[in-house]
Amino acid sequence: MKLKLLKIIFAIFIFSNLSFGQSKSPFLINNELFELPGKWKHIGKIENSAQWGFANEKLKLTLLINVRKPENFEFYNKELSEFEFLNKFYIWETEFWAKDDKNVEIEKIETNEQEKYIIWRLKIIDKNIESFIFSGIRNNKLIGISLSDENKKKPKSRTEKIEFLKNIYFKK
User: Fold this and answer.
1) Contact predicate 122/130, CB 8 Å
2) pTM of the shown model
3) Do 149 and 155 form a contact (C-beta atoms < 8 A)?
4) How far apart are CA 99 and CA 105, in angstroms?
5) Backbone φ/ψ region at 30: left (φ over 0), alpha (ψ -120 to 50), beta
6) What letter does residue 127 receive in the DSSP assignment?
7) DSSP state of 72
8) N or C: which end of the chain has fewer CB within 10 A?
9) Cα separation of 163 and 160, whole Å?
10) For the segment 59-108, what is each residue's pLDDT rounded down to a tens digit?
11) Which CATH superfamily is domain 25-169 in?
């Protein structure tokens, strides 16, 4: 009787994990694997910034991911540490968005020198677009992940957006 009960419990456990477990959508970008939680589809590529676009219709989220070699940037210097390069990239990127009197808000949220990343927020006020951006160095590559939440009814909180980006980057 106990053995039969254990088999039933085990079968329920396995079935529930297969049926309700969170799936992942794997994408390989410039030899870096990204496993996006849930069902995502590739929606295109922005050539001039080497960003790959992905959408999750259920969550109403959009991601832009790019993986580039630091040597490809005009401010690259082999004497810079990876974190120094990352800071130069952050300054370069934020200066681009702030130029020409664009109506934007830029906020540096989190910096981690040990794990070599910067998380920041960009809001284009005129267009009411807000993105949370993770910039990091992994495997000698600059990785950028930008998250936009179009869910007007139930958007993710600020903390959820930051954790979402970290989970993608650190493959949790």
Assistant:
1) yes
2) 0.85
3) yes
4) 12
5) left
6) G
7) G
8) N
9) 5
10) 999 999 999 999 999 999 999 999 999 999 999 999 999 987 679 999 99
11) Mog1/PsbP, alpha/beta/alpha sandwich (3.40.1000.10)
Asked if 134 contacts 161 with a C-beta cutoff of 8 angstroms, the reply is no
Cα separation, 138 vs 77, whole angstroms: 17
43: CB partners within 8 A, 6+ apart: 53, 54, 55, 62
- Provide the token pair at 18: 């297969």
What is the residue whose two structure tokens read 């959820």? 160
d(CA 51, CA 66): 5
Q: What tokens were used for 141?
A: 């590559």
Structure tokens at 41: 């589809």
Q: Do residues 61 and 150 touch, judged by C-beta distance below 8 A?
A: yes
Residues 24/35, Cβ–Cβ less than 8 Å = yes
Residue type, 137: I
Q: Where are the domains of the chain?
A: 25-169
